[in-house]
Each structure stands twice: as C-alpha cells, then as structure tokens.
C-alpha cells in the first residue's frame, strides 16, 4: 500500500523528497521511503510502535505525537505526506472534552497538515471508513482546510482488495485531476507490482541505501577530537559520539 | 532522533502560541553522529526552506562551527558537505526542546521527542 500511496503522491521522478509519514507505526512505510531514497519524519501516538521502528533502524526522525492535536511544522516544510491505515482513528472521540470531538480533531489535523505542505504538493492518506458518511465528513473538513482533490478507490468491487485513498492537493486545485482507482478484481498488493514494473521501465535505479554501513569509529573519533579541540563550552559534554547501534529503551 | 533538518522546521504548536514560537531551544542535549549518504541535489533543493540563523545557532550549540553566519551566495562542494553533515548526520538523542515563547518543554528521550500536549494546551 505504501508503494501505491507513493505512486499517487506523484513526486518528481528520481528526486529525493522530504516527506511526512502520518502514523508511521513500526516503520514499515519508512523502510520503503528509505529504500526509495527519500528523507522523512514519522509521527505516531504509540510509543510501543515507535520502539519497534527504532529497532528497525529506519532513517527518518520519529516523533511521539497525536495527529488530532495538530502539527507544529513551519509552512511549506514537506514535499508530500503519506498515511497508511491511520486517519480513521480521528473519528473516535478520545475523551469527553470538547477539544477531542472528531470534527475538532479532524480540523486541527487537516489545517496544520495543509500548512506544513509545500505548494504544490499532495497528501495521500489510505484509511478504512466504515460508512460513506465518514468519507463525507473527512473530505468536507479537508476541503475547508484548503485541500483540493478527492477519494480514490482501488478495486471497488473486491471485498478483499478494496482500498480507499484520500488523495489531497495543495495548490493548483483545478489543474490536478484526481487519479483513477485501480479496476478489476486483483488481489491487494498488485498495486505494488504495477509501480515496480513502471520503475523498471523508466530505468530508475536507486542506490541500495539500506546496505550502507554506519560511519566507522575512526571517523567519529576524528569528529569528536575536532569538537574537543575547538573547546566550545556549548559542546554537550555527555555526548555519545559512538557508532554503536541504538538500544530501544522506553 | 531529532536531526537539525527537522528541528529547523519545527515550531511550538501549543494553544495560543503563534508568535516567537520558533526555533525551539535545545537544553541538556546529548547527540550522536551517524553517517548519511550525501545527495547534493537534495541539499541544494532544500536550501530555500532553511531558516539560516536558526540552523547556524543550533549547529553551534551542538558543537559544529562549520557553517558561515550568512548563507553564502556561491554553493561549493565544501559548503554542501558541511551543510549535509549539520542537517542529516547530527542526531539529538536526549534532552529537551523548549519553546522560546510559552516555555513548553518537549522532552527528547531515546531520540524521540514527546510532542503530546495536555488537554488545556490543545489549540
Ligand atoms: Zn510555545
């Protein structure tokens, strides 16, 4: 699904982008973003999931954040945003407090997301609505926040493979056509195959980022010594200039 | 991990905190250096998004003095390398980020900043 979301994001080919992964969970999408050469920030409300993402050693920055509280990113920070199976959670009221009603949460989410994205750009949010009313509520609030675009449904007639994507546009509203959903009865996952086949055809070859090594101890010691020599007071004295892998401890 | 590329985009999002809420100030931080693959086009493309003074101040606070106070007009390889290092290879692992306006403390633990707000802080 991440591959399909990236396809719908329609980023310029072969350029690494700076992306937001909304509800990054354990870093499954993040691994794919890494592999595609993108830089990214992932936010998730579940510390246990972020812990798994740390163990996975993904490259993105991980934030403990409740998307219903809104984002604090400056205007135009990201080249795009993706979200896999997350935003339906915004439809649940977290507490009885008025700020946590679904319309409030959705409004803060879409307003601050819209502002955090560059103009033009896209956000592709795959989610699981339980009714058409839910789709209606979500799209109307997204529109009020300034987004164009609409809903893309892949395999609408397949119970198993049906997927709903909210494909939102920032800027150049009318110029962008909402992409067509995939048709037929294909099984889930064929979207990935299509995307990869297209990449192969276009001859895009990305470096295998995951295989690269962590910088040698020598390099780090050199940097450490350099910082020491400068003797700056502000150098954090408890810095861990080590090449070791991080431990996931919460 | 909080890299400076992300720190440079991050303002406080607490209720009513809309001015003087950037950049968040690092406090009691420890950092790790981790290699990242240099992509000159990405760095060049990202330049217009950077708040330069905030980046230079943050880098210096973390001990890196390679960046000039003013963003140079000519971008050479040396500069790109240094900027790449500051943006993507310095990871803040522990400590906190503090809002210069409302003093909200975003604690960073095990590389992950806690951006959760209390009920009364939600806009
Ligand atoms: Zn603040």
Textual characterization of the structure:
The complex is a heterodimer of chains A (250) and B (123). By secondary structure, chain A is of the alpha/beta class. Chain A has two domains: 2-210, Vaccinia Virus protein VP39 (Rossmann fold, 3-Layer(aba) Sandwich), CATH 3.40.50; 214-250, no CATH class. Chain A has seven helices and seven strands; from the N terminus they run αβαβαββαβαββαα. In chain A, helix 1 crosses helix 6 (190-201) and helix 4 packs across helix 5. With 123 residues, chain B is an alpha+beta fold. Chain B has a domain at 4-10 and 31-94: N-terminal domain of TfIIb (Single Sheet). Helix content of chain B is 28%, strand content 22%. Chain B has helices at residues 4-7, 40-46, 52-61, 77-89; strands spanning 2-3, 25-33, 90-98, 105-109, 112-113. Chain B is globular and about 50 Å long. The two termini of chain B are 26 Å apart. Chains A and B meet through strand 2, helix 3, strand 3 and helix 7 of A and strand 1, strand 2, helix 2 and strand 5 of B. The site of zinc ion has 8 residues of chain B, from loops. Chain A: Belongs to the class I-like SAM-binding methyltransferase superfamily. BUD23/WBSCR22 family. Chain A: Keywords: Cytoplasm, Methyltransferase, Nucleus, S-adenosyl-L-methionine, Transferase. Chain A: One of its GO terms (cellular component) is nucleolus.
């Amino acid at each position: 699904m991440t591959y399909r979301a990236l396809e719908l994001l329609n980023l310029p080919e072969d350029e690494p982008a700076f992306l937001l992964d909304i509800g990054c969970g354990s870093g499954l999408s993040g691994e794919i973003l890494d592999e595609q050469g993108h830089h990214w920030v992932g936010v998730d409300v579940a510390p246990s999931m972020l812990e798994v993402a740390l163990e996975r050693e993904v490259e993105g920055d991980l934030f403990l954040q409740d998307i219903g509280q809104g984002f604090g990113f400056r205007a135009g920070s990201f080249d795009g945003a993706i979200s896999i199976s997350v935003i339906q959670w915004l439809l649940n009221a977290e507490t009885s407090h008025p700020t946590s009603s679904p319309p409030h949460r959705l409004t803060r989410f879409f307003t601050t997301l819209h502002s955090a994205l560059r103009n033009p750009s896209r956000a592709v949010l795959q989610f699981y609505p339980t009714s058409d009313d839910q789709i209606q509520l979500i799209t109307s609030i997204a529109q009020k926040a300034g987004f164009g675009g609409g809903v893309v449904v892949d395999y609408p007639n397949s119970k198993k493979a049906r997927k709903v994507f909210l494909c939102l546009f920032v800027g150049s509203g009318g110029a962008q056509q909402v992409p067509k959903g995939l048709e037929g009865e294909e099984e889930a996952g064929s979207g990935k195959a299509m995307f990869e086949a297209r990449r192969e055809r276009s001859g895009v070859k990305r470096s295998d980022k995951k295989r690269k090594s962590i910088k040698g101890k020598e390099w780090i010691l050199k940097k450490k010594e350099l910082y020491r020599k400068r003797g700056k007071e502000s150098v954090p004295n408890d810095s861990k200039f080590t090449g070791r892998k991080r431990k996931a401890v919460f | 991990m909080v890299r400076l590329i992300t720190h440079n985009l991050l303002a406080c999002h607490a209720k009513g905190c809309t001015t003087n809420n950037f950049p968040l100030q690092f406090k009691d931080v420890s950092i790790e250096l981790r290699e990242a693959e240099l992509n000159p086009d990405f760095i060049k493309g990202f330049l217009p998004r950077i708040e330069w003074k905030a980046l230079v101040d943050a880098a210096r606070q973390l001990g890196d003095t390679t960046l000039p106070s003013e963003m140079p007009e000519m971008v050479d390889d040396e500069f790109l390398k240094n900027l790449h290092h500051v943006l993507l290879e310095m990871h803040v692992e522990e400590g906190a980020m503090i809002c210069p306006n409302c003093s909200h403390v975003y604690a960073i633990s095990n590389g992950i900043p806690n951006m959760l707000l209390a009920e009364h802080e939600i806009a």
